Amino acid sequence: MKPYSKFFYYIQEVSGISIYLSIIVFSILNTFLFYLLVEIFSIFDKRYGVIAALFVVFSPSSIYFLLPMYKDQLGYVAFASILLIVARFISGAQTNILKSLLLYCFGIFFIIISREAYVNYVSFILFLSLFLSLFSKPSRQFFFKNFTPFLFIVLVHTLYFHSDVIKSYTGVTTSSEVTTSSEVTTSSEVTTSSVAPEDSNSLLHMVYDKYNWFFDRVEMRKKENLRAAPDSALNYDSYESIKDPDIIVVVSHISKAIFTPYIDQISGMNTNSFIKIVFIVETIVNYILAVFVVLYIMKSKLHCLPFIGVVFGCMLITSMLDSNFGTYMRHAHIFIELFIGIGVLMALNMFKLDINISIKKVF
What we know:
Blueprint: H1 3-15, H2 18-44, H3 49-57, H4 60-66, H5 72-91, H6 97-114, H7 119-133, H8 140-161, H9 163-170, E1 172-179, E2 187-194, H10 202-228, H11 239-242, H12 246-258, H13 263-266, H14 273-299, H15 305-321, H16 325-331, H17 333-351
Antiparallel strand pairs: 1-2
Helix pairs in contact: 1-2, 2-3, 2-5, 3-17, 5-6, 5-7, 7-8, 7-15, 12-15, 14-17, 15-17
């Protein structure tokens, strides 16, 4: 049991008001999530940022995932915090290193207390953002005001969470040697020695090992999911598809990540007709908005594209690690809503609606 869960159970046993305290806490979390979405969308379109955030927060699937007081909501807020840092970095918006560090610490804390395995997602987001930024054309001002602070956050994250990986592949060891004598005062001598790896291409070995680890993990997760719910109406994998070559697995999940779920699968769900109709309508709207995302990519400036690439990369990885549209939509909810929100911005710009709502900036 997580520490915060023990806290709520203790309050409930002593006073019986844990449920009310939980409602307040998760209401604050959802409000902050809405604010973070507004900030992200406003970076790409200040006029319609609030409208896009309202659309995704009050969509039927968002209401379904945000109303329950579950640890996934901590993950949604955490990823939104990290992606706000990424959006500001990639777009060249004004960045404050202290505020960015605060957002990072806030996000990574929520990751650790909810799903610690998501730390790897944060690493993927940071490294992919750094890589994709190299394809933009940063000015000198961008380098000092955006790139350097973001690189500092990446280094802090890497040294804290992946220092053991770095040491294992670089062969660097650190030892402290303390010598004492009557003639010389006590001193501490730190020596660093570099041991040449057996293979000079240690970086390639690291990439290869991570590649094998990831696809082994994908296969294991899919088998576990299919074993748990082999006849679910929203399954998009089978035991046969798991055996496909890695490249086929990646390509086949592109459409699954974007167009989720399939319309014909919704009709087979074990639920009432009203919920099916609502789900079908929302799915069709999301399909249309996904097309608007493509239009946005075609018309937007180069420095805006990496953010869409980062969000889509998270969607793709999550779809590969799941085998059911229901669990995929829950795990990747924040990424899907950000992706759809970009489509909302493009649609609003196309129809040029005279709507302008703004909220006070906090971070």
